[in-house]
Design a protein that fits this description.
Two copies of one chain form a homodimer. Chain A has helices at 22-26, 88-106, 112-121, 123-130, 137-158, 169-178, 187-198, 201-214, 219-245, 251-260, 264-268, 270-274, 280-283, 286-306, 308-314, 321-329, 333-359, 363-384. Chain A is mainly alpha-helical. The longest helix of chain A is centred in the middle third of the chain and has 27 residues, at 219-245.
Chain lengths: 395, 395
């Protein structure tokens, strides 16, 4: 009598409300996960063999010239330097390859509409904007697959609308962590665990994305990524608890949550995707840790600001920096939005100070904090580029 | 309007059943946490200033001679080599200092009975047995404080009997993580966060224990510890979910949980407590990661076996390696216990093979895997030494 993987098909997983509306599906992704990609156990594909990393990928030079840069709209008063590069054609190529990977290698999002939502999420542009120093498309693909894997875990396991369940979240997230931090026990139970991972698309996606990452990261870089994903899942658990109880945390507690439930894993692989390594002892330096935290906090609060209108419109219980400030200071959401912009700006300035101080300590550290800066500015541009469709510049 | 720290006093935290029975309190600690130390918000002491690490501690040579070694009873057929050293007097000294720290520095367990339970837990003997290569008592104290801090987080935030709550666990654990992985945002909210940490004894304990640890660990070692505590809290969330739903996981899923919800953070600081450093790039080596996982899995399953009778007697929903095997194989608990012993032994043998292979790669790696071995054998002796009081050798 084996219990199936929690959160899949062992019990009715009924969504909290009705099934996801078409308008929600069409509205595109939200938050850190895409959340637009419904879990459809009946359509669950069989596991497929995973080929070796894409050593045959064409070099960047072989790609078509970038198309016209899409118009972007910034939030008034939001401080963030411009992104270093943009490249629509490269982003499209990455999106195509992501669909191919999802379809042929990991069986993620088998429904055609959902596959379109995957493209609509535009992870391609995100990694192109955020990793201008990537030596080639293989490196960008490694970042993009991990991003999609993280979103899949969020969609399948944390979102009530799409099969996630508050009282099961903790149990499924630890299985998800094992997809990138392998189980070691006896041959029999290691085999059962491997079969368990292969039986779910989100788990397969994380396992496969990590396999590709191993090909270009050192063991220490891979271990760093595991740590930041463990942090992310701690953050999912914290946010999920508050949402379940409709509890709005204090601003400081929210900022603690957001430092973990954040883009941090995307930022800290900047050196792996850039084709070099910040050695682990330098990464662990308290000053570097502070720079990492400040840049990922700024990037994540940027998401809070651009996505506020959409979250407010969803009708679900929601909290983000503007709403927790409004609750704590008993002010209007418009006023809180301005205060959140100021908090964001202060964090960016503190990051820039920290980065400047670190840049004179060591050339590798300098390169790494430049990478953090690139990610923060690229992420801002990605959000600003989605204003009018997914995002907005005011509450 | 500031929300108080979740899981403390903002709402009735009513225990699931009645208040903890005297017999349970007297039965001593259980599981990885002591779980015998009731949360008493009314008795919450004021924060006290934290002195600098105990640079004035006497050297080991100044301590009294060890007393007679207590009799220990082993589980029949359980394979584990003997511990390297024991020292009752040193263990007692550490317990005394832990009480002093709890009382004077962090205000942990203010109730006298609970303070006695802290001594009864005998963290002193645990660190003496598990870290035979520690250069002095300051190093042992660093390990002991962290152990008590981890137990305090488990007791206060995860145990329903003592104030923990399933729907709040995720939110409080991330605040607990911030006690060892600091928040970085703006001066105003960093100050609020610091005040939040100082307002709760479990959070103060972890913060203080980490401050002492910083004094003897490198930044990379401290960062490694953060990672393993993040893993531990992921494990607490996973176990808590299953307990709330009274769901017995498959054996492989249980073993995945147990690799995170484990003694791992205690084992991986073996080099810090031993006064040396296994560099982060060697620690991240997949072979070393496997050795860490196998040795901590064996150590944690050892706890499952020795504590089974107590858990079964508690009447609470409980699962551990014997019970998940009994459920999956539909066999008696006695038969499952034997099978769990075999799983334990196989894991120990696989660890020893892995350790032998690693020992020829690098002298530091050899020393580190010896440290893992020391921890595993010391932990076994600690459990065997508590047979007849807290633990038992059969279901």
């Amino acid at each position: 009598m084996k219990a199936p993987i929690p959160g899949t098909t062992d019990e009715p997983t009924g969504p909290v409300g009705s099934s996801p509306s078409l308008s929600r599906l069409l509205s595109g992704p939200t938050g850190l996960g895409t959340k637009s990609l419904r879990f459809t156990p009946a359509m669950e594909p069989e596991p497929v063999p995973v080929p070796a990393p894409d050593a045959q990928s064409p070099p960047l030079a072989a790609l078509p010239e970038p198309g016209p840069r899409p118009a972007s709209q910034r939030i008034e008063g939001l401080y963030c330097p411009p992104a270093v590069r943009d490249d629509r054609a490269l982003a499209d190529e990455i999106n195509d390859r992501l669909v191919q990977w999802a379809e042929q290698e990991v069986g993620l999002y088998p429904d055609t509409d959902l596959r379109e939502a995957l493209v609509g999420f535009d992870a391609g542009r995100s990694v192109v904007l955020c990793h201008p120093d990537a030596p080639g498309i293989d490196h960008l693909m490694a970042a993009a697959r991990l991003l999609i894997g993280e979103n899949a875990v969020d969609d399948y396991f944390c979102e009530a609308e799409y099969g996630g369940s508050a009282d099961r979240r903790g149990a499924v997230l630890i299985v998800a962590q094992s997809a990138i931090d392998p189980a070691h026990n006896t041959p029999r139970y290691e085999a059962d665990w491997r079969a368990g991972i292969e039986a779910h698309p989100a788990l397969r996606s994380m396992r496969s994305a990590m396999d590709y990452f191993y090909a270009l990261a050192t063991p220490a870089q891979a271990h760093r990524f595991r740590h930041d994903i463990a942090n992310l899942y701690l953050g999912y658990n914290a946010e999920g608890d508050c949402i379940s109880r409709q509890r709005t945390p204090a601003v400081w507690e929210y900022l603690v949550q957001r430092q973990f439930n954040s883009f941090r894993p995307c930022l800290t692989l900047t050196d792996s995707i850039g084709g070099y390594e910040l050695p682990a002892q330098l990464f662990a330096d308290p000053g570097v840790q502070r720079a990492v935290a400040l840049s990922s906090n700024a990037s994540t609060i940027c998401n809070d600001l651009y996505s506020l209108r959409k979250e407010q419109a969803s009708g679900r219980f929601h909290y983000s920096l503007p709403t927790v400030i409004a609750a704590e200071e008993e002010c209007s959401i418009e006023e809180a939005f301005q205060k959140a912009v100021e908090v964001h700006n202060e964090i960016v300035h503190r990051f820039e100070e920290q980065a400047a101080a670190l840049s004179v300590t060591n050339p590798l550290t300098a390169r790494f904090v430049t990478g953090l800066h690139n990610w923060m500015t690229g992420n801002h541009e990605w959000h600003a580029g989605n204003v009018g469709t997914r995002y907005a510049t005011s509450p």
